[in-house]
Amino acid sequence: MVIRPHSVVVVFKVVAHFMVAVLVIILLAVVVVQIAVCFMVDPIAAYFRVEEFFLHLLLLFLALPIFPTMLRLLLHLLDIVTLVLPLMVVTIVVIIVILLKTISSLLFPKADIRFHNLML
């Protein structure tokens, strides 16, 4: 069986786009849950969460056109195996950090609000 480089690149692009889409959906879901919890605990602090949410959304839409160019550059610079594994590890670490942050903000909402009050 002959593996053509083009088919490997196509498979990698599909996997990379899927991972980015899943990461974006998880990020948006986590932020929406955090805002809902914040509205239940303290509506004033929720205002800052909504503001932060829209800022992250804006940054995400500004960064989306950069992803294909970055992937193309990385494909030329690195081997497929050395690129896919770190991407998967980074994605898994980011998901774990987001889940831990969500769980901690659900368990200790007062500490999260105090942090936002310190930032003012």
Automatic annotation (TrEMBL):
UniProt keywords (A-Z) are: Membrane, Transmembrane, Transmembrane helix
* Membrane-spanning residues: 15-41, 53-74, 80-100
Name of the protein this chain belongs to: Uncharacterized protein
Species of origin reads: Pyrus ussuriensis x Pyrus communis
